[in-house]
Write a structure and sequence with these properties.
Elements: H1 3-10, H2 14-25, H3 37-49, E1 55-60, E2 63-70, E3 79-84, E4 105-106, E5 109-111, H4 115-133, E6 143-148, H5 159-164, E7 172-175, E8 183-188, E9 190-199, H6 215-226, H7 241-255, E10 267-275, E11 285-294, H8 300-312, E12 317-324, E13 327-328, H9 334-347, E14 352-356, H10 362-366, E15 372-374, E16 389-391, H11 392-410
Parallel strand pairs: 3-6, 3-7, 7-15, 8-14
Antiparallel strand pairs: 1-2, 2-6, 4-5, 5-16, 8-13, 9-11, 9-12, 10-11
Length: 414
Amino acid sequence: MSEIMYKVIEKVSAENVLNLASKLIKVPSVNPPGDTKEIAGVIKEHLGDNGISAELYEPSPGKVNVMARIGGGREEDALILNGHMDVVPVGDEARWSFPPFSGEVKNGFLLGRGASDMKGGLAGIIEAFIAAARFEDEFKRPVILTCVADEETGGRFGAKYLLENGITRGSSVLIAEPTGLDFINIGEKGILWSKIRIRGKPGHGSLAPYVGENAITKTCEVLQELLKVTEMRSTLPGELDEVVKFSREFVERRGGKGVGIVLDHVTINIGMIRGGVKVNVVPDLCEVELDMRVPIGLPSSRVIEFIKDVLKRYDGELEIAASSEANYTSPRCEIVKALRKVISKILGLEARPFLQIASSDARFYRERGVPTIHYGPGELETVHGYDEKIKVDDLIKASKVYAGIIAEYSIQPR
């Protein structure tokens, strides 16, 4: 590693990383409603206390984003460090064994909602950014820090807003989402969230099924046909062969044998059903909300066409609520190779690229051709669940890796 890299890493304070992560967890930023005004203010003040000015952007009331920059050079050549400030709801607090926003350390773990997803990683990139700022005069490419709102509900007022309005530009993006210290996420499935409406004819419940047309019963038939969408599979790009093989093993270690099929097949979750107005009235309308995930190499348009063909036979209606194409970053690109090198040098680990089945803000950057990866600490089994936590040791190690990649990337001329 270069001399400057060692200098930056040495400036990362383990105490500061842990204290900041704890402080961020203690600020509830649950989405919905997704108000990040308070936590954005905490981050802006913390950066200011360390001599770094930051800008706030609020595209919608309460949806506040933080952006800061260090180093010279063209913004188009920058390394963007990204992390989201919002967290999912805590659910039933009685099922937590500690206060959801405690931010306390116990038995080597930092506790609380957002510890893994992703206030731990967020604190790590902020402290690495602060450490790197002391050497920014030696950087040939700038570094941009973006702490965003709204990731947990689609990113419209967070990363997407910053990109669409030309507020952030860069040549590579590192998002501190939890992956584990020896994994790098380089791709994800596409989202297709939709609502279908099936209509029937009302009638008196005492005469069913001989009178009227039950929209709920009709919907059951529709759903049986829609489940066949899982037979649709993609042909993945050849450069991902090894990554896909490893990713299948990665998914099956967590989800069980055979689950790896989801990487190249469409999945469907029947998430919500609403129908009927009264128990003794034949329902004339049934609405269903569906969550489909589309693999890399398969356009969402083909899945939509399949749905429409099914609905056509039942006079059904389709409404697309959210859609994004599957996306990935080449395992051979600069940011992936640089990060693997840094992880090897600092942690002595061989970090493996993998594909994930969920989606993230990475899609907004990849849609614009910007290589984007996830790398961050976290206890994956607690993400979005009860008793969320993160290993303190992993948090500190990841922070040093972030410092290393900032130096490694930014001292290289574009």
